[in-house]
Amino acid sequence: MLATLPQSITHFQDDDRGFFGWLEHNPDGFFINSERNPKPTYLVLHSSNCPHFDRGPNINWTKDYVKFCSPDRRELEEWVLGTVGGEARLCRTCFKPARRQATMGGVAEFEPGEVFAGRYEVQRLLGEGDRKRTFLARDMKMDRPVAISLVKPDAALSDPEGTEREAKVLGRIGEHDNIVSLYDYELGGGSSAQYMVFEYLGGGTLTEYLQEAGQLSLDDILRLGRQLCRGLSHLHKRGLVHRDVSPDNVWLDERHVAHLGDFDSAITASGDSGDLRPITTGAFAAPEEREGRSLDARCDLFSLGGVLYVVATGEPRPGDLGLLRSQRPDLPSAFADLVASLLSESPDDRPQDAEEVLHRLGEIRQASELRKLLCVSC
C-alpha cells in the first residue's frame, strides 16, 4: 500500500500493544490516524498525549485504522500526506491549547491551531519563497482548506505595491483550470501584515513531486506539458507574461493536474524594461531576460522548455540537450526536437506561441498512441 517507511516513522496496524507502547516511550511525539483505506478522505494529526486514545481493554484503536508515528512532526506530515494523500486535519482536542489569535504584525512562526485574521486556522508551513511564506490553513467561515501566503516584512517594505500588483494580475487572468485561483487578499496597514489567500492544491509543487517520482513517463510528460500550455495560452491572450515558469511555481492538485502559480514577477506583454521585476528563478530564465532585453510571451516558452527538460531527465535544472537524448532514448525524437526549439537562444527560433507548442505536443501524443496500437496488433 505504501512506499518504504523512513526510519523515523513507525507504522502500526492491528497492534494495540505496540502502538500504546510507542506512545509511552514518545510522550512528545506525534501520530497520524487514518482509516485502513489506502486513499482516505482525510487524515488526522494527534500528539502523543491525545486524550482520545485511552488504554481501555475493550477498545481496538488499530483494528480499523492505521497509525504512523514519529517524534518528528514535520517529517511525519510530509511523508504520510505525500504518500497516502488526502486532506490533513488537526485533532481539535489535543491541539486546542495551541489555538490563539495570531498577531497581524509581520510574519510569525505560527503554531498549529492559531487563528489568523479571525478566520483562518493555521495548520502547517507549506513553503517559503523570496517574497512570501505560505501556510496550509482552514477557512473556518467557508469550511475549506486554503493556502495563505504572508508577505515578508522586508519584501513589503522594498516593494509595497507587489501584493496588489499580483492580485490585479490574477484578477485580469480570471479563473482557469491550470492557474492557481486567488480567493482574497489584504494589503494591511499600520502594523498589519499583507497576505493573499489561494486555493489549496494538495499535490504540492512539481519540484516536490519530481523528488519522489524522478523521470516521468512520456504520457505524464505530455499531459503535464499540455496543461501548462493551456495555462500559458490563457495568460498570454490577456496580454501578460509570467516570467517565472519553473517547477517551484507549478502546483499539482490531488489528481496531479498542473496549475501555474506565483505571479508576483508577471509583466505586461509589451516587455517595457521599466516594468521588469528581479529574476527569481535564473536557471529557467530566457537569455533575453538575463540580458535585460525586451520580453514577450516567448520568454515563458523558453522556461516551459526548461520544465519539460527537467521532467524528462530528472535533473534539477535544464542543461545539455545531448543528455536528454542519451538519458531518454525511449522518448520520440520529435519531443527532444521540440525541447531543443523551446530552449533556442533566439526567440525567433522558438515556437511563436503556446498554442503551437500545445499542437506539437498533441501530435507527439497521437503518434505515440498509434505506435502502441501497432505494437498490440503485431
Explain the overall architecture.
It is a single chain. The protein folds into three domains: 10-96, no CATH class; 99-199, 2-Layer Sandwich (Phosphorylase Kinase, domain 1), CATH 3.30.200.20; 206-377, Orthogonal Bundle (Transferase(Phosphotransferase), domain 1), CATH 1.10.510. The two termini are 35 Å apart. The longest helix has 24 residues, at 354-377. A six-stranded antiparallel β-sheet has the order 6-7-8-9-11-10. A five-stranded mixed β-sheet has the order 1-4-2-3-5, with helices on both faces. The model is unreliable at 97-105 (pLDDT under 50). The chain has 378 residues and is an alpha+beta fold. Helix 6 packs antiparallel against helix 8 (298-313), helix 6 (218-236) packs antiparallel against helix 11 and helix 8 (298-313) crosses helix 10. The chain is 34% helix and 19% strand. It is globular.
Distinctive features:
six-stranded antiparallel beta sheet, five-stranded mixed beta sheet, 3 domains, Transferase(Phosphotransferase), domain 1, Phosphorylase Kinase, domain 1, 378 residues
